[in-house]
């Protein structure tokens, strides 16, 4: 199990929002969106990725109430889901919540989060903040991605649909105008209940 000892990172907003340049792509590998197939953010990320010619992979499991109707569906086995427990426990230390949950279904939802971010080089999420933490179930995948980078600055981008603003992880959450366009292998996730701000953020993310 990973040992993660960290104080709650502050929500730091830059004095002047930062405009980020798109990452340099060094190979011709196809772009791929990795998500979870749920209604709301997952499905819309997938639809937009397909519109722009990206491959889409949704991670699921037996009994999962998947909503996505397009893209590839990868059904994780019980053994694969169990392998994610180490990463869920590490995320729980950072989030200071409770793992495992009493519901096996919810546990598998959290476990599948690891597979969304495991091979991703960047992360895009739609959520909001509760104090200084990312709200809801989206926080688990975000935490796993940040831990994968030892909580150092990394290409993690979060749209707060309540505040209607993008943030990037630079060791703390920093205000930005717009993230770089999704490219390469990226995780794209978020709230099931999208408001108009969240929907627009996903659609414009691909326009750069």
Q: How would you describe this protein?
A:
- The protein is of the alpha/beta class and 208 residues long.
- It has a single domain, classed as Rossmann fold.
- It is 30% helix and 22% strand.
- Strands 3-2-1-10-4-7-8-9 form an eight-stranded mixed beta sheet, sandwiched between helices. The protein has a two-stranded antiparallel ribbon with strand order 5-6.
- A hairpin with a 3-residue loop joins strand 8 and strand 9.
- It is globular.
- The N terminus is likely disordered.
Helix content: 25-40%
C-alpha Rg (nearest Å): 16 Å
Q: How many runs of DSSP E, i.e. beta strands?
A: 10
Provide the β-strand percentage band: 15-25%
For the report, how would you describe the main beta sheet? 8 strands, mixed
Strand order of the largest sheet: 3-2-1-10-4-7-8-9
User: What's the number of helices?
Assistant: 6
CATH topology: Rossmann fold
Taking all residues together, what is the mean pLDDT? 89
CATH architecture name: 3-Layer(aba) Sandwich
Number of domains: 1
The SSE string, one letter per element, is: EHEEHHHEEEHEEEEH
SSE class: alpha/beta
Which stretches of 5+ consecutive residues score pLDDT under 50? 1-16, 21-27
Terminal Cα span: 38 Å
Can I get a quick summary?
The protein is an alpha/beta fold and 208 residues long. It has a single domain (32-205), classed as Rossmann fold (3-Layer(aba) Sandwich), CATH 3.40.50.450.
């Amino acid at each position: 199990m990973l040992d993660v000892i960290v104080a709650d990172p502050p929500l730091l907003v830059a004095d002047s929002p930062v405009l980020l340049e798109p990452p340099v792509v060094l190979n011709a590998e196809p772009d791929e969106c990795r998500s979870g197939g749920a209604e709301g953010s997952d499905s819309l990320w997938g639809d937009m990725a397909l519109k722009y010619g990206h491959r889409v992979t949704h991670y699921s499991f037996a009994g999962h109430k998947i909503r996505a109707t397009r893209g590839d569906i990868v059904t994780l086995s019980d053994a694969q889901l169990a392998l994610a427990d180490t990463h869920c426990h590490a995320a729980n230390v950072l989030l200071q919540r409770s793992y495992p949950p009493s519901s096996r279904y919810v546990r598998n939802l959290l476990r599948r989060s690891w597979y969304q971010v495991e091979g991703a080089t960047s992360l895009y999420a739609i959520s909001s903040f509760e104090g200084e933490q990312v709200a809801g179930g989206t926080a688990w995948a975000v935490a796993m991605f940040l831990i994968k980078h030892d909580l150092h600055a990394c290409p993690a981008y979060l749209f707060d649909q309540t505040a209607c603003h993008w943030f990037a992880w630079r060791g703390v959450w920093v205000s930005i105008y717009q993230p770089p366009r999704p490219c390469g292998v990226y995780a794209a996730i978020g709230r099931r209940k999208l408001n108009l701000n969240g929907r627009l953020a996903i659609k414009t993310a691909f326009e750069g």
